[in-house]
Every structure is written in structure tokens, then in C-alpha cells.
Description:
The chain has one helix spanning about 30-89, and strands spanning about 5, 10-15. It is rod-shaped. The chain is mostly helical. It has a domain at about 5-65. Helices cover about 65% and strands about 5% of the residues. Strand 1 and strand 2 (about 10-15) form a beta hairpin. The longest helix is centred in the last third of the chain and has 58 residues, at about 30-89. The N and C termini lie far apart (about 100 Å). It is built from 1 helix and 2 strands; from the N terminus they run ββα. The structure holds zinc ion (ZN). Zinc ion binds near residues 6, 8, 9, 22 and 23.
Amino acid sequence: MALINCTECGKQISDKAASCPHCGVSVNAAPSQNTAQAQSTAPQQAVNYQQQAQAQQKSQQKSMMKTMLFSSLISAGISFLTRLFYRRF
Length: 89
Ligand SMILES: [Zn+2]
């Protein structure tokens, strides 16, 4: 039984341990492959999040424009109707 350094927290753990008792990261499952997969998948996830955020911002801007147009139309209609109403009397 030998002691190795944890790849996550750097503390000494047994090389027979399946996971680090300090931070819980799994140590025996080929750590080099795991880090490579994490590095390859992380940027794609970040790009996806950015795209989702941009799409949400665009849809929010569209809905904001719709509500602003709607409220301006309503206020214009109300002023028009009040003018008609006061002209009759
Ligand atoms: Zn650890």
C-alpha cells in the first residue's frame, strides 16, 4: 500500500482507495483520461450555456418590444377614445 497525492485536493491518500476521503474524487479510474475528457467537454458546455443565454436575451428583448408596443397602442387608443367621448358632450 502506497500513498499518492490526490489530483484534486493534493492530500496524500492510499492508492488502493477508490475515492479520495478528503474531497471524494475518484482516483483509481485512470485520472489522465478523466481530466482529458473533462477538458474536452467543459468548453462545449460553456459554449452551449453562452448560446442559451444569448437566445434567452433575444427572446426577452422581443417580448419587451412586444409589451412596449402593446402598451403604447393601448395608451394611444385610450387617448383617442377619451377624445371621442368628450367631443360628444
Ligand atoms: Zn482529494
